[in-house]
Structures are given as structure tokens and as C-alpha cells.
């Protein structure tokens, strides 16, 4: 991609109304633009990152055996009356009347809708277990939207729902999602600690939040430093290995970690003082096991192995896909801008000519651009006739992992500069060596 | 994918309330399920097809130089007051009040929002031309939703918007999208004829609809049979070739084709009688060139090459992505079910065991399933312990291009059956030959 043909608007000034660093950087680097209170358009730079995160979430759900589908954004109020949540949900639910005065709503979550869908199809214990998921826009009418996409009103979420015939099955489904989440966050390049959590309006008695540590976090968190040593995502663990998954769950559960909502001073005091860690964190995922709360209220029943009717046990599992863009930036930035983890970077490499009007520089840049493109490396070439310093600052702000910097002097001695955005290390090397390094 | 672990519910009975064949088949084969009037959930089978169509649309937009982004579904009413369309739009717009009583709406289209976004960034003629697009859910509150996803209320649409400094540029942007559409529909495996169309509430004086011919179409269409001979998508044509694109436009325009909205009896009478074709058609895309209608109303201006201010010329370009699922079925089905074009089939191959309890059959199926999976061929294996006939009927209904049918008798003589869904041709061949054929 050539910057001169792209739509990558960068703001010169830091936006005054943004309070946290991810919000500031997302506006300045042109990832998003607010179109109404708490509602954002995703400009091409932000869109690319959002799609990469979405795809990693999808791949790890698929690997865990969850099945993708897609539910609509607008729901009938009647569905929510069946579960009793229509009146309970409060003003965060965006309520709508259509042209025939029917009561509708913009879905904040989908327990009701999916339970209603599967009750037409799941008739026997042989139709279970199943975990279904979708990645869809949702709406919560926050009274005071703030912090950009971290607490916006319209947001992209992956939500999965599991259906099992018994408690043991439901526990295994929960553990599979727990592992899928650990793997997802690791691939995204962030450390997210699972913490026992309150279940709130979703219900149930077992729940974990996944918290990214960041000084700007919304919750206070308390955890045992032993967490840092646990191999949370267990490289060799197979999703079919029920005992192995339960052992992982037990280890996660027996190591203290909690948000202020569930913090237990008695258990905390048992953690050795030198291992107690406190800080602030951002919730990026939340999983729930809530038994038959929705299946019972909505009449989902299947025949059991012995011929009697069984009410399936359910769980639900959310990841804030759009929120993750902000959370990753909170966890990975410096004074010059965003520092993307490789897996979610909008492009891997940025090419900068210090003097676009120097024919040798432009020629070298074209050559590198074409070679990387042909090698399947995602590359953004700043081919604009701007000051080199401004172009470098723009690349730093946008946070691509690598910069190839091309200047007339270096070229005269046969080298370009390769800069690592995270470390700031710069190295002079030949074009061929740079290409080899970046194509690896 | 194993059917025993999937969520692919098939209805035994033809749904009584569905009037057209695509709606019937989408419900019966389990592509979608209605969740409220004119609102559908996409079950895994339908979701896979929807994503394939979306990806082809995306790739052809990218190839034409359009840049992807994503705008939100909920918009502020104030945006639409700027263009004057808030009052003009009528009851098809889903109007919403949020908790602070602010007037919002669920976007039916995005001319206003994108014009407002780019006016902050596009300052000079050097920032143009640009064509931006997104693929996002939209809502039109149809008074009487019907025909399933063909005339639903919540629908997925690709909409692109072009910005140019002058009329010649705008014409070229229009021609690029025209070619991208022809290429998109060809890749999707359907013939869509561009027809001069009325511009309606979008405005402007140049517009084409893309119509798929089908007896259940909503519009009457009239066209010159010469259309069938034109090489519409011009294999070698490059998007930078302005004269070549204009020649394509001229040839398309000079061959008569119109819907009843724009039908011109005088011009029609000039078409040789034996070349006159009439029928019914389904609109799957609509492109518009509307000059400065929105840019002028909303104050989008850039400095021109001579320093004066210029109001950019715009166009907008829509493809009904979810509607295409229905339109493709209307154009490609038989008495037994759907016949997917290869490019959009949910899986390329279905494996059916006639007797799942026969160990040799199950073993052969496992082997074929694994080999195709490893070869990167998308495959669905019906491993359920059901009657062979019912399983074959299910595969026909779901419309996968190829079926591998495995029975004890054939296996005894070393063969399986390979069935082409479209032609119905069946052929006995060895497992190795079948694998070679299907991996090609």
C-alpha cells in the first residue's frame, strides 16, 4: 500500500477531549473517528487491526470446536420477556419501536436469542454438546460513554454459548473456553490474567474475567505473583483431554487473583507478602457458567439417555473485540505512539524515503516495496513528498513493527536503515539483507 | 467438518409461509432462521456462504483500488439533517431515541456519514481521488418484509463512495466500480446485467442497477440479446486504463437494457424484434453518480490545482451481500435443492456413508475426509447413523458441488461413487482417483 493513495489521516495535535492514552493515540493515529457520543467509525488503519484481532479470536474458537454463525443486531423485546430480562436490564438497553410500534431492541448480548434458536433443533442428548459463537456488533447505551472504544456504546464482541446435558459436560465446555481465551490473548501479544468474577446480570455461580494489567484500568486487581510463572496456555494440551483441562482450571483457580468486586481479604492474607501484586486492569473477556437459568426459563429441553427430559446446562463466553484494540494500545505504547505486537500490526513493515525527490531513494523504495509485496509481507510505503522527519514520526505513531528508512547518503554507500519500533534499535544493512530479514 | 458435531438443522417439511423458492430452500436447508419479522439469524450453513460472497466482493473492491473501512450501524439524526434527508427518508428509516432522548437512526446507507468523515481530512485536490467502502449491516424498516433475505429489514451491504475533483474523474471512478461489479458477479457464478436505472432518493443523473434474471424477480426487465454476447468483464482490462473503461461503459450503455422504471418504448422499438428479451429480474447491485449533491450540502471542499476551492464530485456503489445468497439460489437450484456455484459453496465436497455401521465404509470415509482436509479441500462428512437415502437427500438439499458416496458393495470391488450435484452425473472410481479429482 502506498500512503499517497491511502486514507490514513493523522492528527497533528493531541485531541483535548481524550482522557486515556489509547483513546488519544487511536484518534491521533487515525484508527477511529467519533461519529456520535460513544460511537466510532473505524478508519482503514483501525479497521485492519480490528480484523486481525477478530481473525485470531475466530481461529482459536474454531480450534476449540466452537461453531460460527451470525445473529442479527436487532431483537424482539418478546424474546427478553421470556427470560424476564427485558424489564430487569435497565436503561443500558437501547429500546426501539418499529413502524408498526412493535417493541424491539439493539442486542447487548444473545443468551435469549440463541436459546430460542436451538430449542427448535436440539431434541436429544445426542445433539449435545455444542458451543456456538458469533462475532457481531452490539450496543449498550452507556450513560456516560468515555475512553474511546474502551467504553463505547456500539462495540464488536465475540460471544459463544455452550449447551451440555449435565454439569460435568458444562464444566468441560467452560474449561475449553478458558483455554481458548488464554491462547487467544497470548497470540494477540498481551498478558491477560483470569480472575474470579461476580456474575452480575448474566447469572450463575462460576465466572472469570480476563484482565489486562494497565495503569488506566477500570478495576483494582489483586493477584499472586505465582501467576506469572504458570504456563497458562499449556502448549500441548488437547481440547479433548478433560482431566488435563480440569487440572489447568484447578491451578488457575487455586492461585489468587481477583478484581475488587470479588476480592477476599482472608484469602489474600494467606498469600505470602512478597508475592502480593496489586494494580489496575482492563477487562477484555468474561466467561460464565450459569446452569439452566436460560434453558429453564425458555423451555429448552432434550431427551436424555434414559428417555426422560433434560434441561441443558449453559455457559456464555465474551471477548470484547473492539475494546481489545484499545487494551492492546494501553499495554503496548511509548511516548512516540503505538507499538503493535506483530500479530495485530496493520502492516509489518513501513518504508520511508527521507527525500522522495531523490530518484535513487524512490527507486530503492519501489524495489523494496515490490519485493516485500511479492514475498507476502504486508507493507506500507510512505511515498509522499513530505519532510523525512515528519514521515518517521508518523510511522512511529502508527506503530508498525519495522521501518525501512532510505536516505541518499546511505544509498550511496549501498545501505538502508532498518529500525525496530519496539526497541528503537537501528541497523544499517544492504537492501538484500533487509529483504531477507523482513521476509523471514 | 463432521455432521455429527455440526449445527446443520434441516427442516423435513417445506415451510408454509415462504413464497419464493430461495426463501423456502434457505429455511429448509437451514441457512437462516427468522428471529423477528424480516430479521434473520444466519445458521452455520448460511453463514459460510455469506462469508464467501463477502470475501469475493471485498477482493474485487480491493483490486479496483477501493479502500476498506467500517462505519457504525447507529447514526446521529443530525447528520441526515445536514443533507436534508432526515425528513425526506420516510418510515423505512428506523428512528431511535437514546437514553438522553437524542435522535438516532439505524443507518440505511452512509452518504452523509462518510462525507462528514472525509471533510475533516480531505483538504487538497492531491488527497483525491479516493473510493472508500465498508461491508456492514443496515436496516430498512420495510412495511411488509417478505421473500426471506431478499426483502428483509436487517441486511448486509457493501457500499462504496467515490470522491473526485472533477466530472472526468467521477466518470472514471464510476467505470471502475462498473467493471468491479461485472467481475464480482462473474466470480460469484451468476450473470448480472447492468441496466440503466432511476436514481430515486440517492439523487444524481447516472445510475445502473445490476439485475440477475429470475422468474421470481421483483422488476420486469427488457434487454437486447446482444448483451449475452458482450464480454462484459473484459479479462485484460486494467483499472488505470481510462479509455478502455470508457469504451466498456459505452458498449454497455449503447446496448438496450432497462427495468420497467426506466423502460423507453421508443428505443426498445429500435431493437431488432428477434433480439428483444423480456423477463423478470432481481436487483443485486446499484451504482450512482450524483455529482456534488452531498458534498455541497455538507460543505466538503478541497483546494483545487489553481488554488481555488472545489466541491468534490461523488458516487455511491452498493451490493446487497445478504440478498445475493437468495438471488444465487433463485438462479441456481433444482427440485432437490440448492446447486451452489463452486465459488460460494459452503463446502466443496460432501462425504456420505450409506451404512455408517459398516466398518469398511466408515474407515474409507475417515480416510477420504482426512486426505481432503489435508489437501485444503473444504469437506463435510455426514457421519451420522441415519438412512443412506435421507443423508443423500440432505446433501442434495444443501447443494455442495460434489458428493462422495460410500457403500459396502462398491468398497468390496474397490470403488466409491462420485456425484456432480449440478449435472447429477455419477461415476464409480477408486478412492485414489476420487481424491485426485477432488483435490485438483
From TrEMBL, chains A, B:
Query: So what EC number does this one have?
Result: 6.1.1.15
Q: Where is the Aminoacyl-transfer RNA synthetases class-II family profile domain?
A: 38-341
Q: Which domain of life is it from?
A: Bacteria
Under InterPro entries, the record lists: aa-tRNA-synt_IIb, aa-tRNA-synth_II, aa-tRNA-synth_II/BPL/LPL, Anticodon-bd, Anticodon-bd_dom_sf, Pro-tRNA-ligase_IIa, Pro-tRNA-synth_IIa_bac-type, Pro-tRNA_synthetase
UniProt cross-references to SUPFAM superfamilies, sorted A to Z: Class II aaRS ABD-related, Class II aaRS and biotin synthetases
Task: Give yes or no: UniProt keyword Cytoplasm.
Answer: yes
Q: Which Pfam families match?
A: HGTP_anticodon, tRNA-synt_2b
Keywords of this entry: Aminoacyl-tRNA synthetase, ATP-binding, Cytoplasm, Ligase, Nucleotide-binding, Protein biosynthesis
What Gene Ontology molecular function terms does this protein carry? proline-tRNA ligase activity
List where in the cell it is found.
Answer: Cytoplasm
Reactions listed under catalytic activity = tRNA(Pro) + L-proline + ATP = L-prolyl-tRNA(Pro) + AMP + diphosphate
- The record's principal subcellular location, in a coarse class, is cytoplasm
* Class of enzymatic activity (EC top level): ligase
Cited PROSITE patterns: AA_TRNA_LIGASE_II
Gene3D superfamilies named among the record's database cross-references:
Anticodon-binding domain, Bira Bifunctional Protein, Domain 2
Q: What does this protein do?
A: Catalyzes the attachment of proline to tRNA(Pro) in a two-step reaction: proline is first activated by ATP to form Pro-AMP and then transferred to the acceptor end of tRNA(Pro).
The protein's assembly and partners: Homodimer.
Family statement: Belongs to the class-II aminoacyl-tRNA synthetase family. ProS type 2 subfamily.
According to UniProt, the name of this protein is: Proline--tRNA ligase
Q: Which organism is it from?
A: Sphingomonas alba
Q: What is the lineage of its organism?
A: Bacteria, Pseudomonadati, Pseudomonadota, Alphaproteobacteria, Sphingomonadales
In the UniProt record, what gene is named as encoding this protein? Answer: proS
Amino acid at each position: 500500500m502506498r500512503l499517497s493513495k491511502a486514507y490514513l489521516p493523522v492528527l497533528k495535535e493531541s485531541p483535548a477531549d481524550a482522557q486515556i492514552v489509547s483513546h488519544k493515540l487511536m484518534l491521533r493515529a487515525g484508527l477511529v473517528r467519533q461519529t456520535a457520543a460513544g460511537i466510532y467509525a473505524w478508519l482503514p488503519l483501525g479497521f485492519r487491526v480490528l480484523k486481525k484481532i477478530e481473525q485470531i479470536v475466530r481461529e482459536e474458537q474454531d480450534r476449540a470446536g466452537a461453531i460460527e454463525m451470525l445473529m442479527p443486531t436487532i431483537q424482539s423485546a418478546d424474546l427478553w420477556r421470556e427470560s424476564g430480562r427485558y424489564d430487569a436490564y435497565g436503561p443500558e438497553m437501547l429500546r426501539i419501536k418499529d413502524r408498526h410500534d412493535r417493541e424491539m431492541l439493539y442486542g447487548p448480548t444473545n443468551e435469549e436469542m440463541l436459546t430460542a434458536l436451538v430449542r427448535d433443533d436440539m431434541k436429544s442428548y445426542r445433539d449435545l454438546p455444542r458451543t456456538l459463537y458469533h462475532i457481531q456488533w452490539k450496543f449498550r447505551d452507556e450513560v456516560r460513554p468515555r475512553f474511546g472504544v474502551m467504553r463505547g456504546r456500539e462495540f464488536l464482541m465475540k460471544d459463544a454459548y455452550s449447551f451440555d446435558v449435565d454439569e460435568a459436560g458444562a464444566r468441560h465446555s467452560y474449561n475449553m473456553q478458558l483455554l481458548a481465551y488464554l491462547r487467544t490473548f497470548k497470540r494477540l501479544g498481551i498478558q491477560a490474567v483470569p480472575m474470579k468474577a461476580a456474575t452480575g446480570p448474566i447469572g450463575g455461580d462460576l465466572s472469570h474475567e480476563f484482565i489486562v494489567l494497565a495503569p488506566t484500568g477500570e478495576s483494582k486487581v489483586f493477584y499472586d505473583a505465582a501467576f506469572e510463572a504458570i504456563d497458562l496456555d499449556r502448549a500441548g494440551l488437547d481440547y479433548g483431554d478433560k482431566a488435563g483441562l480440569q487440572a489447568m482450571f484447578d491451578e488457575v483457580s487455586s492461585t489468587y487473583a481477583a478484581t475488587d468486586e470479588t476480592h477476599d481479604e482472608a484469602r489474600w492474607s494467606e498469600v505470602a507478602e512478597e508475592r502480593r501484586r496489586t494494580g489496575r486492569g482492563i477487562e477484555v473477556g468474561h466467561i460464565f457458567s450459569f446452569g439452566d437459568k436460560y434453558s429453564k426459563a425458555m423451555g429448552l429441553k432434550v431427551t436424555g439417555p434414559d428417555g426422560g427430559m433434560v434441561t441443558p446446562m449453559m455457559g456464555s463466553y465474551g471477548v470484547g473485540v473492539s475494546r481489545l484494540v484499545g487494551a492492546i494500545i494501553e499495554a503496548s505504547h511509548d511516548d512516540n505512539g503505538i507499538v503493535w505486537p506483530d500479530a495485530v500490526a496493520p502492516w509489518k513493515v513501513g518504508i520511508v524515503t527521507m527525500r522522495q525527490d531523490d530518484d535513487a531513494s524512490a527507486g530503492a523504495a519501489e524495489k523494496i516495496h515490490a519485493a516485500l509485496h511479492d514475498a507476502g509481507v504486508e507493507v506500507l510505503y510512505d511515498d509522499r513528498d513530505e519532510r523525512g522527519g515528519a514521515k518517521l514520526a508518523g510511522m512511529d505513531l502508527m506503530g508498525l513493527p519495522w521501518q525501512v528508512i532510505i536516505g541518499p547518503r546511505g544509498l550511496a554507500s549501498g545501505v538502508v536503515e532498518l529500525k525496530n519500533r519496539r526497541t528503537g534499535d537501528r541497523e544499517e544493512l544492504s537492501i538484500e539483507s533487509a529483504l531477507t530479514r523482513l521476509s523471514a
